[in-house]
Amino acid sequence: MTVNNVPPEILPVPPTPHSPNSDLPVIVYRGALNDLTFEGALAAIDTREWPKGGHWKIGGEILAATPHYHAITHEAYTVLHGSGTYLLGKSPLDPDTNAAGNPAGVTHYVTETEDEYEIIGFYSLVRISCPFPGWKLDQLR
């Protein structure tokens, strides 16, 4: 199990009237996985703290295109194939605003996909941790 030690992209997502969002940022590790197979992703992610939730091949699915957030858990996606565009932190009803956030959940949904987009979702069992064993997120708060 090897991963590339890539710098994280930190994306703060403020709350809106229709999307409470988290006070924690969205964190993106582009190019972190060396093995982009289902088995490779499972080997790279610390599934003791981030159990696998689902394996999706998304091509215009209504579920992925519906704005939603997870109120009691954090979610990590591994992209195995293709590409997808996510709208983060807003529902179609939201204007631009800034207010206090909730402890978990950032509104998200897929707006478009290409090349047979395939992902695995993992859901955190702890408030904040990194899905890659040995990596620390303390400096991101």
Notes on the protein architecture:
The protein has 141 residues and is mainly beta. It has one domain (9-128). 5% of the residues lie in helices and 30% in strands. The protein is built from 1 helix and 5 strands. The chain has one helix at residues 38-44, and strands spanning 9-11, 26-28, 52-57, 75-88, 108-123. The strands form 2 sheets. A 3-stranded antiparallel β-sheet has the order 3-5-4. Strands 1-2 form a two-stranded antiparallel sheet. The longest helix is centred in the first third of the chain and has 7 residues, at 38-44. The protein is globular and about 40 Å long.
What order do the helices and strands come in, and which of them pair?
Elements: E1 9-11, E2 26-28, H1 38-44, E3 52-57, E4 75-88, E5 108-123
Antiparallel strand pairs: 1-2, 3-5, 4-5
Please tag this protein with its features.
two-stranded antiparallel sheet; 5% helix; 141 residues; mainly beta; single chain
Short description, anyone?
This protein is mostly beta strands.
Overall shape: globular
**How many structural units, i.e. domains?**
1
Portion of residues in beta strands equals 25-35%
Structural class: mainly beta
Q: Give the number of DSSP strands.
A: 5
Based on CA atoms alone, the radius of gyration comes out at 15 Å
Strands side by side in the biggest sheet: 3-5-4
Distance between the termini: 27 Å
Q: So how many helices?
A: 1
Low-confidence stretches: 97-103, 137-141
**Overall residue-averaged pLDDT value:** 76
Helix content: under 10%
- Report the order of strands and helices: EEHEEE
How would a crystallographer describe the biggest sheet? 3 strands, antiparallel
